[in-house]
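Q: What residues go here?
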């Protein structure tokens, strides 16, 4: 029998239609702030459940009877050429049209066309609050879609009304968007530290970052599907999905939907396996759904580029230079919230290098029908593959490195593009990249074999020795004794010619067999 509910990947979740867990489950802080008539911000990356949370919050507050609450979007005023006057009208129209979804007619504000005073957001909210017997909780979504003077104007009007609450202005206002309120300053006046003593940014009591799902919450979400259909997500399947997604809500739902609907065609008698999870991951990456496209679009921004390059290379970052960029990337959901700083989840770690070296991947064509890097027994010939890369790198790297937008990470991206054929042949590459490690680690799995590659830039004469020590420690954690240390020379070939820099050496180091591949 077909389930009435399904895994949602578009729009906000509704309990009667979608599998979902309570979006307010860990949000006692929100109710405390509302009770104390505070203003606050909620921020989180796209498709992490902000709108679902806001919708549930507004309905719950109104239903419980102590407040009236409305969610509305200000996105209609979110373009650069708009005037403050027109922006006010658009925002007020959005508030009015949204209020009918949450409130009965007597609690809604007056229709804007019947408003006789100067139509500003501040005046409109004052008169609405005066007309009500219950305090108003106002939830402004997409606040960071506003630009320049319009953004400042809206925030200043809210600030002006702050002292009049709760009788003559909304009791609580939540500003909701992708980024923390501190980012609004950068957006409006990037060259100024402060907007002066009348700053509209100084009234918020808290800034709440919505988190990702825990493994237990993913289990709870998937168990709803099991209850409806009898189809089980085994613990090993949930564990792997958590590894792939890092608990990112859209990815958690997208992987499950891909398996249940696309791969198994809603045949609930079929068992969900780890192979299904890997196929779902690959399908989502290949298809590049809207969620992944919006992530990819952010990679073009300079401060995202700085952080992502540092992660791919393992470079350290100076927090006085990168602090805002780190917070920005965290708020966008690109990097993890905890140290060491790394790409947020395995799917992002997979798709980001693929996108950054897509043109190169498209240009690398297999010669003939045979896969020359596969042995007669079906195993991967890693030595042959890396020697071929050495030749490719010496012949093509200078041209390709010049074309890369991410020049600092170019050598690493070139090798990852070259190794993409391993994935295309049914293998898997796990990428371990984090700020400050001085390296990137690749664990390649193919037909039952595992290969460890450590990538390192030769910034200092000590790079080789440090690399050997690092890969030995990494092999210890994996319980392996064989690995490859890939060293990239960063000086131009005019200074160190190719015939000198291309080397291949097998050595023993700390009871490990290490192949050093230099170029």
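A:
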């Amino acid at each position: 029998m077909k389930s009435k509910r399904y895994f949602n990947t578009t729009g906000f979740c509704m309990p009667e239609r979608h599998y979902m867990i309570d979006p307010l489950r860990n949000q006692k802080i929100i109710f405390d702030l509302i009770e104390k008539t505070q203003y606050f911000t909620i921020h989180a990356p796209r498709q992490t459940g902000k709108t679902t949370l806001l919708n549930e919050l507004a309905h719950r507050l109104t239903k419980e009877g102590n407040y009236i609450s409305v969610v509305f979007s200000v996105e209609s005023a979110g373009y650069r050429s708009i005037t403050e006057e027109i922006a006010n009208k658009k925002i007020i129209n959005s508030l009015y049209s949204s209020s009918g979804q949450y409130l009965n007619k007597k609690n809604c504000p007056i229709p804007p066309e019947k408003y006789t005073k100067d139509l500003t957001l501040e005046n409109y909210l004052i008169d609405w609050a005066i007309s009500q017997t219950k305090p108003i909780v106002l939830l402004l979504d997409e606040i960071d879609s506003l630009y320049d003077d319009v953004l400042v104007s809206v925030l200043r009007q809210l600030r002006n009304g702050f002292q009049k609450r709760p009788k003559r202005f909304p009791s609580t206002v939540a500003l909701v968007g992708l980024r923390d309120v501190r980012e609004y300053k950068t957006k409006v006046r990037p060259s100024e530290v402060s907007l002066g003593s009348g700053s509209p940014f100084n009234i918020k009591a808290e800034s709440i970052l919505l988190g990702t799902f825990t493994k237990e919450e993913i289990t709870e979400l998937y168990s709803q599907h099991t209850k409806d259909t009898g189809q089980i997500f085994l613990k090993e399947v949930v564990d792997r999905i958590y590894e792939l997604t890092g608990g990112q809500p859209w990815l958690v739902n997208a992987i499950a939907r891909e398996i249940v609907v696309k791969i198994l065609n809603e045949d609930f008698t079929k068992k969900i396996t780890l192979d299904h999870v890997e196929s779902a991951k690959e399908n989502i990456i290949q298809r590049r759904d809207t969620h992944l496209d919006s992530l990819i679009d952010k990679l073009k921004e300079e401060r995202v580029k700085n952080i992502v390059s540092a992660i791919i290379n393992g470079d350290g970052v100076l927090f006085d230079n990168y602090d805002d960029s780190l917070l920005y990337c965290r708020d966008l959901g690109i990097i993890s919230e905890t140290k060491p700083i790394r790409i947020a989840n395995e799917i992002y770690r997979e798709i980001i290098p693929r996108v950054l070296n897509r043109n190169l991947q498209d240009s690398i064509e297999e010669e003939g029908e045979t896969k020359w890097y596969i042995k007669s027994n079906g195993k991967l010939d890693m030595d042959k593959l890396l020697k071929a890369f050495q030749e490719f790198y010496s012949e093509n790297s200078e041209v390709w490195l010049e074309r890369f937008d991410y020049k600092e990470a170019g050598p690493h991206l070139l090798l990852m593009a070259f190794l993409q054929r391993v994935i295309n042949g049914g293998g898997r590459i796990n990428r371990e990249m984090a700020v400050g490690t001085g390296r990137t680690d690749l664990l390649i799995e193919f037909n039952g074999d595992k290969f460890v590659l450590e990538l390192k830039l030769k910034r200092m004469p000590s790079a080789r020795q440090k690399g050997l020590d690092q890969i030995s420690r990494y092999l210890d954690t994996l319980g392996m004794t064989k690995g490859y240390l890939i060293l990239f020379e960063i000086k131009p070939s005019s200074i160190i010619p190719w015939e000198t820099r291309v080397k291949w050496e097998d050595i023993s180091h700390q009871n490990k067999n290490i192949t050093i591949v230099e170029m």
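A: Context that may help when evaluating the design: The chain has a mean pLDDT of 89. Residues 129 and 169 are 5 Å apart (CA to CA).
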